[in-house]
């Protein structure tokens, strides 16, 4: 029951027709349609604004830089809504920062941005915490002694620990059982929520309540994490010093105290719990996946590794840790990090938006509450902005003189009012982690670099790299 329909819907065109009557596996058919939907050929035939039905629900698609920018930047307020998926309705109920709306979203987002970007909690800045974790990451990799290993856990533990440090004040030892349990829940849910079955349930919500399946396990995992966060909040309440905030939770609790007389305040325990959960889970897996995909691409392109290591040697040397001030003097390394994000196209179709009012968009009338998908892949792989976009080439972000070149088309974190809250932190982590790794090691594949498989293991909501083994050879 997933199709594109040729009919009129509230004065905006909905095109062509596809039937799934003969599809044996409707979940895989959903993925097939999504991949086909955002292809270059389809946009050429049906234009840069078109509508598909997912289940019985119409979803407007924006394809290409101009359409995406017009929707998310020029009309950012009108397209700033979120609809809740069945799982989000069950566990988040409209609280938090990712799937909230209206006044709640604006206030929680403003607070989260200020805290994550501008505020050095206690005596340690966020950069200090990322640098500490980069050193711990290097030591863990050194313990492999150059033997082949699967880097999935180590590259997931590092960004998770940064989030733990920012939210809970302290990082974990990589072998701490509580930490291992949390990582296990994150990894399991990342696979479940990116599976064809859950995407199919999102199209037909009735399946969520009445059918067994992995979505039930995902809900249990989320509540496990939330129970841990609840205990952390209780401990913070007992030891809170309003004059010395230690982390994100302390900052939120202080804000709650400041607004305790405001009956309409959005700074409540429910919003604290869900916001911390949002930052915790979203900030762990996306950065981890980018790091894993990035190393895979670098192994396939050893000439890029050599150029980055030459720049590291020239600017940083071997005896001090990388810092963010180094980035402005390392254009090739900066370009490589950007090219990894552009090339892997982590979240091809963005997190869905929803219109908050009736509006006219390019002569189409789009009703309030309509779901909107903005194709980030059509922007990140635009062949006019990035020649040969399907080729991994840091030169996409360098000018003729070898200086770093910014691009408005670089939007892996989305753009506009709903741009990722943790963008600044994620950029910092990617630069410092990758630079620290290449400062100390040369990652070597177990096969000829030409034979390294970079095709995603999964390409649903998020593109997941294949599992691989790598040897970290000390420099």
Provide keyphrases for this structure.
475 residues, alpha+beta, Cytochrome p450, four-stranded mixed sheet, two-stranded antiparallel sheet, 17 helices, 12 strands, 50% helix, globular, oxidoreductase
The CATH homologous superfamily is named Cytochrome P450
Low-confidence stretches: 1-33, 35-39
In spatial order, strands of the major sheet run 3-4-8-5
The number of distinct β-strands equals: 12
Major sheet size, sense and barrel closure: 4 strands, mixed
**What is the string of SSEs from the N terminus onward?**
EEHHEEHHHHHHHHHHHHHEEEEHHEEEE
Structural class: alpha+beta
β-sheet strand percentage = 5-15%
Write the layout of secondary structure elements.
Blueprint: E1 7-9, E2 12-14, H1 26-37, H2 40-46, E3 49-54, E4 57-63, H3 65-74, H4 86-91, H5 102-118, H6 126-142, H7 152-168, H8 177-193, H9 196-203, H10 206-210, H11 214-239, H12 248-258, H13 269-300, H14 302-315, H15 331-344, E5 353-354, E6 359-361, E7 364-366, E8 371-375, H16 376-380, H17 423-440, E9 441-445, E10 458-459, E11 463-464, E12 470-474
Parallel strand pairs: 4-8
Antiparallel strand pairs: 1-2, 3-4, 5-8, 6-7, 9-12, 10-11
Helix pairs in contact: 1-9, 6-7, 6-17, 7-13, 8-11, 11-13, 13-15, 13-17
């Amino acid at each position: 029951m997933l199709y594109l329909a040729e009919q009129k819907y509230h004065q905006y065109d909905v095109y062509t027709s596809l039937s799934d009557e003969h599809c044996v596996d409707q979940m895989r058919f959903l993925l097939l349609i999504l991949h086909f939907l955002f292809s270059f050929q389809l946009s050429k035939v049906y234009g840069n604004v078109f509508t598909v039905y997912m289940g019985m629900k119409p979803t407007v698609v924006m394809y290409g830089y101009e359409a995406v920018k017009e929707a998310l930047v020029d009309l950012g307020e009108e397209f700033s809504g979120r609809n809740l998926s069945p799982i989000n309705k069950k566990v988040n109920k409209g609280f938090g920062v990712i799937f909230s709306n209206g006044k709640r979203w604006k206030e929680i987002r403003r607070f989260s941005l200020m805290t994550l970007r501008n505020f050095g909690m206690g005596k340690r800045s966020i950069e200090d915490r990322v640098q500490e974790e980069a050193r711990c990451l290097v030591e863990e990799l050194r313990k492999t002694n150059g033997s082949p290993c699967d880097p999935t856990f180590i590259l997931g533990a590092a960004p998770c620990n940064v989030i733990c440090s920012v939210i809970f004040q302290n990082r974990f030892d990589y072998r701490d059982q509580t930490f291992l349990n949390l990582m296990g829940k994150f990894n399991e849910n990342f696979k479940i929520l990116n599976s064809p079955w859950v995407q199919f349930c999102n199209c037909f919500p009735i399946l969520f309540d009445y059918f067994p399946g992995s979505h039930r396990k995902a809900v249990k995992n989320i509540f496990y994490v939330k129970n841990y966060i609840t205990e952390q909040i209780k401990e913070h309440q007992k030891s809170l010093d309003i004059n010395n905030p230690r982390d994100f939770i302390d900052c939120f609790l202080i804000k709650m105290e400041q607004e305790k007389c405001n009956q309409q305040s959005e700074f409540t325990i429910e919003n604290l719990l869900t916001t911390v959960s949002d930052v915790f889970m979203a900030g762990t897996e996306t950065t981890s996946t980018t790091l894993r995909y990035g190393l895979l691409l670098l192994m396939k392109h050893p000439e890029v590794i050599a150029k980055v290591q030459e720049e590291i040697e020239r600017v940083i040397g071997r005896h001090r840790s990388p810092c963010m001030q180094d980035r402005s003097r390392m254009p090739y390394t900066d370009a490589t990090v950007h090219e990894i994000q552009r090339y892997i196209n982590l979240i091809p179709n963005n997190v869905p938006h929803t219109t908050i009012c009736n509006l006219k968009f390019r002569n189409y009338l789009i009703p309030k509450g309509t779901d909107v998908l903005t194709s980030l892949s059509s922007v990140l792989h635009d062949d006019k902005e990035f020649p040969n976009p399907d080729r991994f080439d840091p030169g996409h972000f360098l000018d003729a003189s070898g200086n770093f070149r910014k691009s408005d088309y670089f939007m892996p974190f989305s753009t506009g009012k709903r741009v990722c809250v943790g963008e600044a932190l994620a950029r910092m982590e990617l630069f410092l982690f990758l630079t620290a790794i290449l400062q100390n090691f040369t990652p070597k594949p177990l096969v000829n670099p030409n034979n390294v498989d970079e095709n995603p293991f999964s390409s649903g909501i998020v593109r997941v790299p294949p599992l691989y083994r790598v040897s970290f050879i000390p420099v």
